[in-house]
Specification:
By secondary structure, the protein is α+β, with helices and mostly antiparallel strands. It is built from two helices and nine strands, in the order E-E-E-E-H-H-E-E-E-E-E.
Amino acid sequence: MQLNVRLVDTSTGEIVATAEGSGKSSQSESAVVTRFGGSGATRDVREELLDQATAQAIDEVLSHISSNPKLLAVTPAVPKEALVADLSLMSMVLNRGSEAGYRVGLKLSIEKIIREVKDPATGEVLRTVTEPVGKVQITEVDTKSSVAKILSDP
């Protein structure tokens, strides 16, 4: 039994990690007897051998994944907020790129700032009130900027 596993980023379709495992089992009998709820049932030896080999392959894959912390840390960091640097009819340029965690396929909500709520004593901004404007998806990224296509209005 050979098992190949691919961990896929579902937002981009990118394969972010792979792991393999194999298992082998052999037995000379033609059938094995297993017990289910006290009654005897006969299973074909091929089913039992396949189960054993599959269990070995799965154990090997799980061992490989758990021993490699990088495979478990495939969830990308949440990107920093960006500002719209340029706007055209169907796309926009944002002032953040790969340095800030932006990547092709990333979907974002675009929001307009309605007002800032400030602390009356210090003048510090306590909260920014926003209103959704639409959704975009990143199509190009360099280190400092991104291009996004407009998907929808709010």
